[in-house]
Design goal:
The protein is mostly helical. It is built from 9 helices and 2 strands. It has one domain. Helix 4 crosses helix 5 (about 120-130).
Length: about 210
């Protein structure tokens, strides 16, 4: 085979490889279920973060001001893995019942406050009795191609409020920040107060 004929084969091999890749992708899309994006909401296909201001109703209304400001609870009591995992964790029923086995839904009469029954604690106890998890609705979401390790940020001294706003004052939690790439980079280059600085090359967040 001459040198010219050898080189003529190469484009054909590339074309064959391209066809094989396309067929593989097509078959995967047709037969493999989507196991990544399950929420087909307004932002489901946007390849972007969940929208700023997002504030879905939760199955149990959790009063952050009462627990954080009045009772002095730390974020890590409920979001137990934020300082040691990429994901902060959502409270398990057992976490809530650690206190609410003692503090039940029926509240006695107190000076200036009549007796009442907390319907939210009734719902909590029902999940506990049924041995079912609380179906919390996740509020903050970044795309699957973004790596955001919570523990790295928490252990570097970035407070929860830096990204999530003053959750301790929110009667219903909402998404405080845009979570888009420009917002993240703004912090990494030090354009915030306090002026944190960190690497901001592509491989830090996208790998």
């Amino acid at each position: 085979m001459t040198v010219r004929r050898k080189w003529a084969v190469i484009p054909g091999l590339f074309a064959l490889a391209a066809v094989a890749v396309l067929l593989s992708a097509y078959q995967g899309a047709a037969t493999r279920p989507d196991t990544i994006i399950t929420d087909r909401g307004a932002w489901g296909y946007s390849a972007a973060s969940s929208p700023q201001g997002r504030s879905p109703e939760q199955p149990i209304h959790f009063p952050h001001p009462t627990h954080v400001q009045t009772l002095g609870m730390n974020c890590l009591y409920c979001h137990y893995s934020a300082n040691k995992s990429t994901d902060p964790g959502l409270p398990a029923v057992s976490t809530c019942m650690g206190c609410h086995l003692v503090i039940g839904p029926k509240r006695p009469e107190m000076p200036g406050r009549p007796a009442f029954e907390s319907q939210e604690l009734v719902k909590l106890q029902q999940y506990w009795n049924d041995k079912k998890p609380i179906p919390w609705v996740r509020i903050h979401h970044v795309p699957d191609y973004v790596n955001f390790p919570h523990m790295t940020h928490v252990n570097a001294g970035v407070t929860c409020q830096t990204c999530h706003g003053e959750v301790q004052k929110m009667t219903q939690v909402y998404q405080y920040a845009s979570l888009n790439m420009g917002w993240c980079i703004n912090c990494h280059v030090g354009n915030v107060n306090p002026a944190w600085k960190a690497r901001y090359d592509c491989s830090v967040c996208h790998y």
